[in-house]
Design goal:
6-stranded antiparallel β-sheet; alpha+beta; 230 residues; Uridine Diphospho-n-acetylenolpyruvylglucosamine Reductase, domain 3; FAD binding; 4-stranded mixed β-sheet; FAD-bd_PCMH-like_sf
Length: 230
């Protein structure tokens, strides 16, 4: 992917902004903040404008993380109005940062395609899930491994396209928001697949006795099998 750096005119766009008294919390309400400015851009230019105008800015996804990574008293950007599919072809899909994973899954499934890996839930936004390192299931690589391109907004409002070979690309795929605000993400996709879950219980002694055989049958690498119990 060819990398480019460009400045996009920061034109006035429709945003939802509230000064003072605003409230944000994560999914279990254990992380709460009251940003002075809350912006919900609907375009790339709006996202650039919000980032450039802020002295301190955090970007929130679906609030699924239990960490305080989003908390701020300054400017909070939420992406619930920034969810479109930008491009789709035989190998990749490009979506705006606020699109939920389940909406990506539905779009791909309608075309007989899927992301190579998924986590246990899909309510997260694509940017939130990848920026915080959601790992997914199995040994196919985490969700961020499937990013093949992305647009990032730097603090000065510059929109930068990153791809393989760019100095920042690998760091930006799981950037925790420190390199800039994610604008779009391009993922590779694969033919639609299904997963079967088989759940059973065994006495611990029986499991320990037959551990190697069970792992061989389930094709689970040794390092990815865990036992829960007292």
């Amino acid at each position: 992917m060819k990398c480019r750096v460009s400045m996009v005119a920061l034109v006035a766009v429709a945003v939802a902004a509230t000064n003072g008294g605003d409230f944000w919390s994560n999914w279990d309400t254990r992380q709460v903040c009251h940003p002075r400015v809350h912006v919900s851009p609907s375009t790339a230019a709006g996202l650039q404008r919000a980032v450039q105008a802020a002295s301190h800015v955090r970007v929130a996804g679906a609030g699924h993380s239990f960490s305080p990574i989003v908390l701020t008293e300054h400017t909070l950007v939420t992406l619930d109005k920034y969810t479109d599919v930008v491009a789709f072809d035989a190998d990749t899909i490009t979506v705006q940062a606020g699109r939920p994973l389940y909406a990506v899954n539905d779009y791909l499934a309608a075309h007989g395609r899927a992301l190579p890996n998924l986590g246990a839930v899909a309510i997260q936004t694509v940017a939130g899930a990848t920026q915080t390192g959601t790992h997914g299931t199995g040994n196919t690589g985490c969700l961020s491994d499937n990013i093949v391109g992305m647009d990032l907004v730097f603090a000065n409002g510059t929109l930068v396209n990153l791809g393989p070979g760019h100095d920042l690309f690998d760091a930006a795929r799981v950037g925790m928001g420190v390199l800039g605000a994610v604008s779009t993400l391009t993922f590779r996709h694969v033919p639609l697949w299904t997963m079967e879950e088989i759940t059973f219980t065994l006495p611990l002694a029986t499991f320990q006795l037959h551990r190697a055989a069970l792992l061989a049958v389930s094709a689970i690498p040794q390092g990815q099998f865990s036992v829960l119990g007292s």
